[in-house]
Amino acid sequence: MNRTASQWAIPLVVTGALALTGCVENDDASATAIAVTSTADECQVETATATSGPVRFEVENTGDDVTEFYVLADDGLRIIGEVENIAAGSSRDLTVQLQPGDYFTVCKPGMVGEGVGQADFSVSGDELEASESDQAATDEAVASYTAYTKTQVAELVTGTKAFTDAYRAGNDDEARRLFPLARINYERVEPTAGNFGDLDPKIDYRKPGAEAEGLEFTGFHRIEMDLWIDEARVNYPGEDIQPLDQAGRAAVADQLDADIQSLYDQVHADDFELTVDDITNGAIGLLDEIAAPDGKLPGEENEFAHTDLYDFLANVEGAEVAYGTVRDIAAGKGQDGEDLVAELDEQFAAMKALLATYGSYDAGFVSYATVDQTARNALGAQLNALSEPLSQLTFTVLGVDPGE
C-alpha cells in the first residue's frame, strides 16, 4: 500500500438525513457532468460549483504519469470520493452524491505526495434525505460492518504478535510461514486502517513508497525484506542490503506491534464511526488495492516473499463482506438493484473459485513468482468482471430512488 503519509480520512457520520456521499463510475443520466484535466502540475476543474445530487467528474489525464483525482470534505482531509490509477492519456469518471456544502478538488500525479491544484468546490441546493426504511437498513449495515471491522483488527493484534515473536526469536522459518497469515486481517479492512493518519504508511508501506515520501521504512514489508534478504538483494542490486542484528529486529518488531495496537485502540475508541459510503467505497477500494501498479495483481505488494495471493484473497473477502452488509439495500432498489446483486453474487463466486485453484490459507498458496503472465491476465480479467459491477454499488445504495 502506497498512499501519502498525510492519509486523508475521518469518516462522515450517518445521522438523521443520510450522508449521501460516495463514489462510483456511473453513467447515470441525472448526474451533472464536470470536465477535469489532470496535468503534471495542475488540476483544472471546469467549474467550481454544482447542485446537490449526483455529480460526475470526467477526469482526463494529459500528463506523463498515472494520476488520481479526489473530492475532499471542507477540512481538506476526509475523502468524499476518489478515482485512482488513471493512466497517462486516458480518462476515468468519478460519480459522487454531494450534499450542499463546501469541498475541495485535487489531483495527484504520480499517485504520491500531497497532490496539486487543490481548489474550492461549492455545492448548493436541497439536502438529500433517505426514507425511514432506508435509514433503518443503513444503520443496521453500519453497525454490522463496524463490529466486523473491530473483530478483524482484534485478530490482527494477536496474529501480528505471533509473527513478530517468531521473528524476534530468530525462528525465521516460522516467521516466513506466519508473514502472509498475519496480514490477512489487515488486508480485509485496509481502507479503514488508512483512516488514521500515518498508521497505514508505518504498517504497510513498501520500500519504494517509503523512500518516495521520505519516511522511515518500517512495518510488515521491512521485516519481509529482512526475512527474504537474498530476494531483496536481487531486486535492489545497487544497494548494500545487510541483515538486521538482534537489536534491529527487536526495534522493527516492537514498532509494528505498537502501530497495530494503536490501530486497535482507535478502532475500538468510543468515537470510532463508519458510514454506509465507507462500506461501499471501501469495497471498491479493496479491489483497487489489488489492481494498483504497486498492488497484488502485478506482484509488487510482497515483492520479496511473493505471497501476493494471500493478500489478493483477503482483499476480495473484505470487499465481499462489505458488499454483503448492504446487499439487501441494493436489492431493494428496483430491477436495477436486483440485477446488480445477481451479477455481484456471480462474480464474487467466480473470483474466489479462480483464486482457489492456486491454494488456500490452510494449505498455502503457490508463490506468485510462479504465476506466469497469461495466468495473471486471467486473474485480471476476472477482477475486472467483478470491479465493474461493484463500482455501481455506491450509487445503487445511496442514489436516487428507482424511477426518479
Describe the sheet with the most strands. 5 strands, mixed
As for the number of domains, it is 2
SSE topology string: EEEEEEEEEEHHHHHHHHHHHHEEHH
Rg measurement, Å? 21 Å
Give the CATH level 1 class of the largest domain.
Mainly Alpha
- What's the number of helices? 14
The low-pLDDT segments are: 1-26, 400-404
**Strand tally:** 12
Strand content: 15-25%
| CATH homologous superfamily descriptor of the largest domain | M75 peptidase, HXXE motif
- The CATH architecture category of the largest domain equals Up-down Bundle
**Broad shape:** globular
Here the CATH topology of the largest domain equals A middle domain of Talin 1
Q: What gap, in angstroms, lies between the N and C termini?
A: 39 Å
Trace the largest sheet across and list its strands.
1-8-5-2-3
Summarize the structure.
With 404 residues, the chain is α+β, with helices and mostly antiparallel strands.
Any overview of this molecule?
By secondary structure, the chain is of the alpha+beta class. The protein has two domains: 127 residues, Sandwich (Immunoglobulin-like), CATH 2.60.40; 250 residues, A middle domain of Talin 1 (Up-down Bundle). Helices cover 48% and strands 16% of the residues. It is built from 14 helices and twelve strands. The strands form three sheets. The protein has a five-stranded mixed β-sheet. A five-stranded mixed β-sheet has the order 4-10-9-6-7, with no helix packed on it. Strand 2 and strand 3 form a beta hairpin. Helix 1 runs antiparallel to helix 2 and helix 12 packs antiparallel against helix 13.
